[in-house]
Amino acid sequence: MDLSLKSLQAKWEAMKSDTQFANDRKRWASNVKKFILGLFKLVIIVGICYVILGPVIGIISSSFFSDSDTYNPMVYLIPQEPTLERYKIAIEYLNYGKTMTASLLYSLTLMLVQVFICSMVGYGFARYKFPFKNLLFGCVVVMIVIPVHTIMLPLYMTFAKFDVFGIIEATGGSAVNLLSTPVPMYIMTFFGCGLRSGLYIYIFNQFFRGLPKEIEEAAFVDGAGTWYTYFRIMLVNAIPSVITVAIFSMVWQYNDTFYARLFVISDDLVISKKISTIEASISNVEKILDPKILELFLDAGIVLVMIPIIIIYVALQKQFIEGVERSGIVG
Amino acid sequence: MNRKRTKMSLTTRRSINGYLFIMPWLIGFIVFYLRSLIMSVQFSLSELTVNPGGGYTLEFVGLENFIYAFRVHGSFKQILTTSVGNMLIDVPLITFFSLFMAILLNKKFPGRTLVRAIFFLPVILNSGAIQDAMDLARAMMSGGISNASAEIAEAASGSGVSIDYYIQMFTSLGLPDVIIEYVSGAVGRISEIINASGVQIVIFIAALQSIPGSMYEVAKIEGATGYETFWKVTFPMVMPHIITNVVYTVVDSFADSEVVELAYDVAFTQNNYGLSSVFSLVSTIVTCLILVLVCRFIQKRTFYYN
User: Fold this and answer.
1) CATH classification (class only), A92-326
2) Residue from A62, A118, A140, A150 whose CB has the most chain B CBs within 10 Å, to mutate
3) Residue B220 vs residues A48, B214, B233, B239: alpha-carbon distances, Å
């Protein structure tokens, strides 16, 4: 066989000038191109998914490790002697059933208030004309943009001695300390200033603006009052954005530790806060001093805390992403 | 009987209704936000002592707290500049990374929903405790993903690849040091960047889907290559959403930066409320300034289709 460069070149020229199978060749070349591009895409996507999922997998697998597995250099991800002891102790120290119920209830009620108030405010901004409307809507945007930590101290002070404008003092009572109860969070949320309320108001505003005006006009002609129109007609039409806001506010509220820390809300109400002390309390009571072993308990606790979020997410994943796409975070 | 109400024009009645709808928020905004902002400024200008019976007294000290923060305090300036610097590096990276990923994920392929679900996962798992544990786990997995570029260099040298060699190579090729540092820093922070771009990717996907298909048809008929189509059609059309994403990224990255931690610590462990307010205010002003500047900059170059 003559494999010199020249003969190869000649063969290549012959192939190029051969018109009989030109189409086949082109198709083949484009297929190869497509395949290589696809492979490239696959590698990138799988790699990035691994970066995101890696730590989660690591946490889940190491929560099953026994003591001997931790120090066995041969063990990677798959434990040799899997144990459920981490979970047993983590459940005990988290007081799992009770704390989880309380925590879920807490975020659920806040979520309901959040949806109710924010949809109302968003509707007001979207459908009514009133003086200073643009200025006030600017204030909503300011609420989104300004980091909460700017106002954390005044908030702390306000709720440590809760007496807005001296109303309570004037009626004979004395100011109350609302810290270490969940009340501040409820008050803030009820007045549309809860966790990321500005964003939710914005989402609702965008959505209501996109609904046709004729719906309301028809309702008005048929004699429906303002509030009837809002509750029975507009809110029903806004179900997609209601779902988006509901899921987001539920999950973010459940995850929130900033407000929980600021208002000193009890650990038994906010499981995400309780998880941060689990290592210390296990080490104190169980007399485990090895930080590597303690980490395993933390991992088990984290898995326990993540379970409800993951369940919600897997069940409603489609609404989540489509909600963000559709309901107008996109300007 | 038809009891006549007091005569009001339809517009007045509607505007009253409008105010009724936004009333809860309006009260909350005035009581919690406006009042708190004013109080923050007040705190920062005075020395605050907590009374034993609850409550506090303010003693006006002028700009002393500000002077202390900038001239005397050990770490504030440094932390502020690092936070701002990190943010300035991250924002363009996150924006372009999420645009790139959105373009990849926009096309139909098997398992697309699953992949998109995974990409959105960091937004869901954004609790502080979970994040900390994740960082630990990430360090433990040590499959080459670590947080600092120095660690990458170390890990790479262990596996027989010397990152220094490549850096040396690029330097001798004549690339400026700034670019090399930027790129190697970005590679070191890849996992942070990926974790921070969940929402941005979704926003860009939505933006891409709202581009009318006829535009691409025209580009194709006119004989534009893929590269040209991207820069002449896709990029201008998603440009308005870049502002949304930049704002979101800046706010998000400042919300959990070290400055917040510092302000929190100073307030609640050292009980120095005045100084803490100064930290919060200064960082907020810096954030807003950056936002305004960046938005101006982008807005001038933005093309609005409608």
Assistant:
1) mainly alpha
2) A150
3) 31, 10, 11, 21
Tens of pLDDT, residue by residue over B179-197, are 877 777 777 778 788 888 8
CB-CB under 8 Å, B199 with A128: no
Between the alpha carbon of residue A122 and those of residues A134, A266, A322, B182, the distances in Å are: 13, 32, 20, 42
Binding-face residues of A in 106-145 toward B, CB within 8 A: 117-118, 120-121, 123-125, 127-131, 133, 136, 139-140, 142-145
Residue B149: predicted pLDDT: 43
The yes-or-no verdict on residue A139 having pLDDT over 80 is yes
Q: How far is B234 from chain A (nearest CA, A)?
A: 16
ipTM computed for the complex: 0.79
- CA-nearest of B66, B28, B206 to A325 is B206
Query: Which residues of chain B are within 8 Å of residue A153 when distances are taken between CB atoms?
Result: 39-40, 43, 267, 273, 276-277, 280
Domains annotated on chain B, with CATH:
65-147+189-301 (1.10.3720.10)
Sign of CA dihedral B230, B231, B235, B236: negative
Q: What is the pTM assigned to this prediction?
A: 0.81
Q: Which of B25, B191, B273 sits opposite A192 (nearest CB)?
A: B25
Distance CA A203, CA A326 (A): 10
Q: Choose among B29, B124, B287: nearest Cβ to A309.
A: B124
Q: Count of CB atoms within 10 A of residue B122's CB? A: 21
Using the Cα atoms of residue B114, residue B115, residue B116 and residue B120 in order, give the sign of their dihedral: positive
Beta bridge partners of B48: B58
SS3 state of residue A268: coil
Q: What is the pLDDT of residues A98-123, one digit of tens each?
A: 999 999 999 999 999 999 999 999 99
| B contacts of A183 (beta carbons < 8 Å) | none
- Average pLDDT of A43-67? 86
